[in-house]
Amino acid sequence: MNNNNTKYNPEDMPPKHLEYGSTHADWHRHPNGGGWVYRTAWVAETAFVGPNAAVFGRARVCGNAKVCDSAWVCGDARVCGKAAVYDRARVFGRAKVCGSAEIFDSARIFGRATVCDSAFVTDNAKVSGDAWVGGGAWVFGDAEINGRARIDGSA
User: Fold this and answer.
1) In what helix (H) or strand (E) does residue 132 lie, and over which residues does it extend?
2) pLDDT tens for residues 50-91?
3) Cα dihedral across residues 18, 27, 67, 75: positive or negative
4) Measured between alpha carbons, how far is 101 from 81 in angstroms, rounded to an integer?
5) Is the dihedral of CA 82, 83, 87, 92 positive or negative?
6) Strands of the 108-109 sheet, one edge to the other
7) Strand-pair category, 42-43 with 60-61
8) What is the tally of structural domains in the chain?
9) How far apart are CA 98 and CA 74, in angstroms?
10) φ and ψ of 11, to 5 deg
11) 1 lies in a domain?
C-alpha cells in the first residue's frame, strides 16, 4: 500500500514494453478516446484512439480514423480518413490504411501494403509487401495477400 493513499491501477501504466527503453514520460493518453500514444508517433485531435489501443513508433493516425480495442498502429504506418483498426489487429511497417477501410480481428497489414476505399481485412488475414486491397474487397480467413498483388472489390 502506498503512503499517499493512492491505489495501483495497471490501466494507468503505459505499454512501455512496446517501445524498448521507453519510460512513463514517453507516453500520453490521446484526448479523444484515452488510448496510448508514444512521443514519436502523431495522432490528429480528430482521430480516436481507444483506451486499450496504442500508436507508437513513427506511426501517424489522421483525419477521423479510429484505433480501438487492443489494436496497434506502429512503425511508419499510416491510418487516415475514416479508416478503422480494431480488435487485435496490427498495422505496421510502412503500411497504409485509408478511406473507409476496416482492419479487425487478428488481421495484419505490413510492409508497404495499402488497404483503402471500403475494403475489409479480418480474421487472421495478412496483407503485406506492396500489395493493394481496395474497392469493397473482403480479405478473410487465413488469406495472405503479398508481393505486388492487387485485389479490387469490383473485380
Assistant:
1) strand 132-134
2) 999 999 999 999 999 999 999 999 999 999 999 999 999 999
3) negative
4) 9
5) negative
6) 27-29, 36-38, 54-55, 72-73, 90-91, 108-109, 126-127, 144-145
7) parallel
8) 1
9) 15
10) -70, -20
11) no
What is the pTM assigned to this prediction? 0.91
Please answer whether residues 139 and 117 qualify as being in contact, where contact means their C-beta atoms are separated by less than 8 angstroms. Answer: no
Strands across the sheet containing 60-61? 42-43, 60-61, 78-79, 96-97, 114-115, 132-134, 150-152
Residue 5 scores a pLDDT above 90: no
DSSP classification of residue 47: S
Task: Please identify which residue in the block is written with the cell numbers 512496446.
Answer: 18
Q: Is 91 part of a structural domain of the chain? A: yes
Among candidates 149, 116, 143, 147, which has minimal Cα distance to 129? 147
User: How much is the pLDDT for 4?
Assistant: 37
Of the chain, the percentage scoring pLDDT greater than 90 comes to: 84
Domain holding 84, by residue range, is 28-152
Q: Supply the pLDDT for residue 71.
A: 98
